[in-house]
What we know:
single chain, alpha/beta, Alpha-Beta Plaits, six-stranded mixed beta sheet, elongated
Amino acid sequence: MPKVSAACMIIGDEVLNGKIIDTNSRFFAKYCWDNGISLREIVTVGDDEAQIVETLQNLTRKYHLIVTSGGIGPTHDDITYESIAKTFKLPVKLDTELQSRMRKLSDPESRLDNQALDAFYRMATIPSGPQVKNYYIDDELWVPICSVDHKVYILPGIPQLFRRMIEQFTPRFREIYGLKEDTREYIRFFVKTPFSESQISHFLRKLQEEAAQVSEDIKIGSYPHFGMGFNTISILGTKDNEEYLRRLSGETIRELKGELVTAELEEKYSNLQN
C-alpha cells in the first residue's frame, strides 16, 4: 500500500459512550482501499480539546492525509474547529463566505432568535489563515470541507453527509495526492482453508517472513469464521507484485488444502457472523 498514507480521526463522546455506532471510519477504510490510499490508523477521541490536539499532532507527524469526522455542530461540545486551529496555531474567525452560504441555503434569520442564531453561526467560525482552504463541493450544501495545510480535512459526523462529501471530493484528492483515476494500487487474494488458526499459524508466520523480503507492503492475515468450519487467509500487496502474490496464493492452497474465494464471498461470510 504505497505512496499516500492516511488516518481517520472520529471525534465525539457519543461514540465513546456507545450512544451511536461509528460507520464513517468503515466507509473511509473502504474508500481508501478503492482509491489506492493506504489507511494506516483509525482513532476515536472524545470532545476534549487537549485530546484532539495531542492526537492530531501525532497523526500529522506520520501521515499525508488525515480526515476528521464530527464535532462541528452548534453546541458547546462541538469543538473540532477550535481544537484543530489550536493544533496548527491558527485563529478561528467567522468566515463571511460560509455565513453567506448558510443564509442563502438555510435562511436562519427568518426562523431563529438571537441566541439560537449565535449558536448556528458557530458552525461558520472556522480556522483561518493562509494554510486554510475551504472546498464547497456541492451547491446544495453550505458546509465546506475545511482543509488545513492540505493535510487535515475536517468533515461532519453525520454519515450521509460524510459519505456524500468524501465521494464528491475524490477528484480533488486525486489532484492533490497524484492518485490514479482508473485503478487500485493494491490487490488481495482470499484463500479458504478447513484448518484452524492454530494449525495454520506456523505456516502463515513463515509466509509473512518470506514475503517481507520481497516487499514490506505484502501483508498476510487470517480471519476466523467461528462455527462455520473454516477460516480465510488474506494475501495482500501492491499490483507490481501481482505475480508473486499469485504464487503465495497457490502455495497456501497446496499446503492448507485451500481454495480461492472472491472478496464478495468473503464479505458474505463475515456479515453472517455480525
